[in-house]
Description:
Blueprint: E1 10-15, E2 19-26, E3 29-36, E4 47-54, E5 57-64, E6 69-73, E7 95-99, H1 117-131, E8 136-141, H2 143-154, E9 159-165, H3 171-184, H4 187-199, H5 210-224, H6 231-234, H7 242-249, E10 277-282, H8 289-298, E11 302-307, H9 314-317, H10 319-331
Parallel strand pairs: 6-7, 6-8, 8-9, 9-10, 10-11
Antiparallel strand pairs: 1-2, 2-3, 3-4, 4-5, 5-7
Helix pairs in contact: 4-5
Amino acid sequence: MKGLRLLRMTFLASLSAAALVLVFVSAGCARESRVARAGAEPGATDREKCFFTHQGLELFYETQGQGPPLLLLSGGPGYPPNCFQVLRALAPHVRLIFFHQRGTGKSARARPGGYTIEANIQDIQQLRRHLGLESSMVFGHSWGGMLAQAYAVKHPARVSKLILANTFSSITDLNAVLARMRQSVPEATRAIYEQYEREGLYRGRDRYPKPYEDAVQQAYDPVFCSMPLPDYFLAEDAQLSWDVYRAMWGEETEFRVTGALARFDVERHLGRIRSPTLVIVGARDMPIIEMARQTARAIPNARLEVFEHSRHFPFIEEPDKFLNVLREFVRGAEGKQ
């Protein structure tokens, strides 16, 4: 329950064939400890779900695992980190931090004007202080990778390792890809874009009209995901927060960013990032391989990993390889290769 501050300790236990589940709730946090019957590594299944307050907003995060902290930043803008379920397999090696960015998932909505890159950077800083961390590893996917870059450029000492997955370093590159996607669909589909963009995408509504959304999906299909999305990706609590998306992406069209992200460009500043960095791209991704390669070249201690059988979600499309690559990276020293 959002904002709940429990002054007493409660204890819940349930017994199943797989595990004994213990849930402790105190001071606004719920700690779930799953004691596996056999074979589980200690601490790998422990989960803690908490809120913290920043700028008057109650923001939610979940942690799981033991070891060096790894902050997970999801995409959209406006999606909660539900899509990262595969990454729970890293819990024996790292302390995963699933952060619900402001306005997404279980976190509170901001007031108009409160959805900006800088506000999200400040939220991350406050979360770091709340957790008592000097620094952490940071994983960002898609928009989350853009935010991760902006954070690492501004606070390089607070990032111990950086993982940039399926992302862009400038809005110029993103807009170029979006323009190409728009031109890739049949003329009849582009006519649907033009019709609703003339009318106003949010006129009398708080999200894209269904015909426009369906037509947009035609442009995304070739670069989005090469297989059906898992159920947890489609669950009700995993859906896009449209007020966040509207503020950050813009109201005019899907195919050009005109909102709060419109001035995003960290390319010239990537040299400030000193932490070991892993740049990930799919062979048929939204960002083309050359864009990812340029990002990796601009960061002094970075390397590029291409997922040959993936589009925009390699952790779903090639999960075994993805987990192996991340395990190797978080465990050891990495540099240019």
